[in-house]
Amino acid sequence: MAGALTLAFIIWGFITPAGLGTVSTAALDWVITNTGWLFVIAASVFAVFAIVVAAKNFGRIPLGKDGEKPKFSTISWISMMFATGMGIGLVFYGVGEPLYFYMSPPPGTVEGSTDAALSTAMGTTLFHWTLFPWAMYAIVGLGMAYGSFRLGRPQLFSAMFTPIFGERAVHGWGGRIINVLAIIATLFGSACSLGLGALQIGGGIQATGMMEKVGSGVLVVIIAILTAMFVASAVSGIERGIQWLSNTNMVLALILALIVFIGGPTLFILNVIPNAVGAFIGDLPEMASRTAASGDGAMSDWLSSWTVFYWAWWISWSPFVGLFIARISRGRTIRQFVTGVLLVPSTVTLIWFAIFGGGAIGIQERAERAGETGQKLANMVDGAPDINFDLVLFDLLGSLPVANWVAVLLMVVTVLLIAIFFVTGADSASIVMGALSERGAENPSKKSVIFWGVATGAVAAVMLLAGGDHPAEALNGLKNITIVSALPFVIVMLLLCVAIWKDLSKDPLILRGKVAREVLEHSVVQGVERHEGSGFSLLTTEIPMVVADEKSGEAKIFATEATVDPASGSKPDAADGDSKATEPKNS
């Protein structure tokens, strides 16, 4: 079903790209007007849910069998998770977004190009890129890892809904619809990333002087080359392909960031880091509650271009990023998993935006105060920043105090970085789509992986063509279709939170603690009643209990048996040991 829908979309886009663009724009207007509030509320729910699950007793539960060790080292785990989660987006928006918000803050906030605008720009950027998107990934990853590695369910998105719908979620039409929605969301989210990568690589070609202008034909060629690269990586497997590329890319990203940090306004960048954190924390309630009702039409337009687009993009990425980080997180506890997924990438993201975005703002601010128009990275045109997101990163590199050949070399490295960042994300996506289309196969067939890889490239080309030949129009085309395609999946993810909570509440580790507390409380009451306030002590031992699992098998847990012992210290008689654990309810 997902394959047929994809082919129909591709054919439609290639036959009448203008018609597809018109329909997507109309659909976007309807989504923003009628359901923008849903994206805003859902994003906050996901963040709170992930934090609560990690903080509760659920955090002690392992994502696997008891005593199982993690498959990947912590460094490789973080590298793969980060590169897959949002690497290409950081490169594309790392300079342009903070600079744009500095020059033109969100409607109704502060005046642009001021000290207050710097704080607002960095706080808003972190709001879009740190805690909230990674919470979405964590929820999907947690549901899949727990169900697959702890309970032995198939690696199907629908299987995570077994606590709500039963086995029908896996084998019935309802389960198939859920899996199709997951594939479609993943497809369009990956295609959007591929389109962004192609646009920025095209910008790099222009910046290095290889071509004066990059049109749609060149962008399609770039998409074809990137598609061939990530399909080749995907069929090589996770360990040989993704792990090697992720580690290589982290090194390249680190080198590029260090060069910009040292060559740019270093002291300004260092001051940006605490400023950004403070602005994010201070403005979080206001940022998390922005809807179209917060202002006039300007706020609605702003949300569709930024916050709602990002929430839709992250939601569309969550099936494949979540399922991918689940596959590489086996053996870690839930608390380790959620803490790692939320905090480590968010910290790296903070540093990245401080270096590239903060560095760009520092250069822009210095040029504005000195009146050096030629040194500015962007200018205001018709009340809005004239920022070409495809080129602004290369403009930043060109402004560094280095020889011209060094700047060109940095631009080439950046193009390579963009390509590898996309490959590490897209090959994960094609593997996940292949697995979902093959009923949860742990190692999907190469034929399936290749099909979904090629489909991703074709959809990216269609989305770019539907937007138009101008880079800004092409970017809007990518955003429009991504937001519309993510709408059904918001409901799916909210239901997933309910399913995860029901699952974790019945885990043997949680039941054991619950039974132990009940037994101890009962024994204390017995002791007080039997000894009428005299001193006594409790002796506790672990006794095996058997509870039925969801597949009618048996899972042994150990609950506490408490016996009341007089304060004299003598051993209790057998008759005293009448406070025994009873089988818990809902077992």
From TrEMBL:
<dbReference type="GO" id="GO:0022857">
    <property type="term" value="F:transmembrane transporter activity"/>
</dbReference>
<dbReference type="Pfam" id="PF02028">
    <property type="entry name" value="BCCT"/>
</dbReference>
<keyword id="KW-0813">Transport</keyword>
<feature type="transmembrane region" description="Helical">
    <location>
        <begin position="177"/>
        <end position="202"/>
    </location>
</feature>
<dbReference type="InterPro" id="IPR018093">
    <property type="entry name" value="BCCT_CS"/>
</dbReference>
<feature type="transmembrane region" description="Helical">
    <location>
        <begin position="449"/>
        <end position="468"/>
    </location>
</feature>
<feature type="transmembrane region" description="Helical">
    <location>
        <begin position="131"/>
        <end position="149"/>
    </location>
</feature>
<feature type="compositionally biased region" description="Basic and acidic residues">
    <location>
        <begin position="573"/>
        <end position="587"/>
    </location>
</feature>
<keyword id="KW-0812">Transmembrane</keyword>
<feature type="transmembrane region" description="Helical">
    <location>
        <begin position="250"/>
        <end position="273"/>
    </location>
</feature>
<feature type="transmembrane region" description="Helical">
    <location>
        <begin position="75"/>
        <end position="95"/>
    </location>
</feature>
<dbReference type="InterPro" id="IPR000060">
    <property type="entry name" value="BCCT_transptr"/>
</dbReference>
<comment type="similarity">
    <text>Belongs to the BCCT transporter (TC 2.A.15) family.</text>
</comment>
<feature type="transmembrane region" description="Helical">
    <location>
        <begin position="308"/>
        <end position="326"/>
    </location>
</feature>
<feature type="transmembrane region" description="Helical">
    <location>
        <begin position="338"/>
        <end position="363"/>
    </location>
</feature>
<feature type="transmembrane region" description="Helical">
    <location>
        <begin position="37"/>
        <end position="55"/>
    </location>
</feature>
<feature type="region of interest" description="Disordered">
    <location>
        <begin position="560"/>
        <end position="587"/>
    </location>
</feature>
<feature type="transmembrane region" description="Helical">
    <location>
        <begin position="214"/>
        <end position="238"/>
    </location>
</feature>
<keyword id="KW-1003">Cell membrane</keyword>
<feature type="transmembrane region" description="Helical">
    <location>
        <begin position="480"/>
        <end position="501"/>
    </location>
</feature>
<protein>
    <submittedName>
        <fullName>BCCT family transporter</fullName>
    </submittedName>
</protein>
<feature type="transmembrane region" description="Helical">
    <location>
        <begin position="402"/>
        <end position="423"/>
    </location>
</feature>
<keyword id="KW-0472">Membrane</keyword>
<dbReference type="GO" id="GO:0005886">
    <property type="term" value="C:plasma membrane"/>
</dbReference>
<keyword id="KW-1133">Transmembrane helix</keyword>
